[in-house]
Amino acid sequence: MTAAGDDLRPGSVEAVELLGALREWAAELGLERLAVASPDRRPEATLLDEWLARGDHAGMGYLARRRELRLDPDRFLPGVRSIVCAAWAYDRAGAMEAPRPGATSGGALRIARFAWGRDYHVELRRRLRALVARLRARLPALKARVAVDTAPVLERHWAAQAGLGWIGRHGCLIVPGLGSWVFLGEIFLDLPLPAGAPLAAACGECRRCLEACPGGALREGRPMDARRCVSYWTVEHSGAFPRRGVPKLSPWLFGCDACQEACPWNAGGAGSREPVAPGLADALHWTAEDWERLGAEGFAGRCSETPLARAGYANILRNARRIAGRE
Ligand code: B12
Ligand code: SF4
Ligand code: SF4
Question: Which part of the chain is the 4Fe-4S ferredoxin-type domain (predicted)?
Answer without folding.
Answer: 194-223
